[in-house]
Amino acid sequence: MKYVFTITFLLCLIGFSSAWCDEPLLQTNFDNQTAQLWSPGIAVSNKDGTTCLNFKQEFPKTSLTKYVLDLKKISGKKIKVSAKIMIEAITQPKENWFGPKMQICFTDRDGKKHYIATQIPAKTSEWKGYEIVADIPADCSEVILNLGLQGVAGNISFTSLKITEVR
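Structure (tokenized):
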């Protein structure tokens, strides 16, 4: 009886921990090899030796990476996108949807685009964590992660990007 209880308890623990410790659907620190997938951003080294993805604009314009996510991994799921972001000297956007971007864009079955973004203030800050939670429809045709600057000048850096399923 003691062994049955112990085995049952361990199986419950394993099941519980796997629900909370799933592998990320995507995770990167934008090292030199993976950074080329995130063009036009470039990989730069931080003071602590880690790397980040950097977008720098001297004049207000758009510099966004549009990373297409794997539909097989995320369709029909609730996902969380998290990253550490540092911004410097961002100019005031002319429109409220311009500025620093970390955004999910998905196209539904009718061809309509839906945008879900986190609010990143257009002011200088040290590394700070941001996240987006989005329900991705099972029948969407495309899901894109946009990172960078839209319609503004300044400097934005991303590191510790992770996409996980929310349960």
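Residues 7 and 135 are 36 Å apart (CA to CA). The longest strand covers residues 142-165.
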